[in-house]
């Protein structure tokens, strides 16, 4: 469980209150986006929240390790979307 001090720095605290084992890039994006404009905002918001978590969690904690994984997954997802867009 994240400490309130860390949660207070995040916009979507409801999502981050759940167990770190439930954190997932796709579930976050689904929860916070209903259309294309909101999807872009959700990508941006998730990136921002992951940066905040990265700065405020111990890197070797289970939560800190999960944040590193999510940051990498988000980058890979963005890169693959950009590659598809460039092809069209």
List the helices and strands and how they pair.
Layout: H1 4-7, H2 13-17, H3 25-32, H4 36-56, H5 62-87
Helix pairs in contact: 3-4, 4-5
What would the principal axes of the Cα set say about the shape? globular
Q: What is the count of DSSP helices, taking H or I runs of 4+ residues?
A: 5
Mean pLDDT: 91
Low-confidence stretches: none
Largest sheet: none
Distance between the termini: 43 Å
Structure summary, number of beta strands: 0
Radius of gyration: 13 Å
Q: What portion of residues is helical?
A: over 70%
Measured by DSSP, the beta-strand proportion falls in: under 5%
Q: What sequence of helices (H) and strands (E) makes up the elements?
A: HHHHH
**Class derived from helix and strand content:** mainly alpha
Number of domains: 1
Kindly describe this structure:
The protein is an all-alpha fold and 88 residues long. It has one domain. Helices cover 73% and strands 0% of the residues. α3 (25-32) crosses α4 (36-56) and α4 (36-56) runs antiparallel to α5 (62-87). The longest helix is centred in the C-terminal third of the chain and has 26 residues, at 62-87.
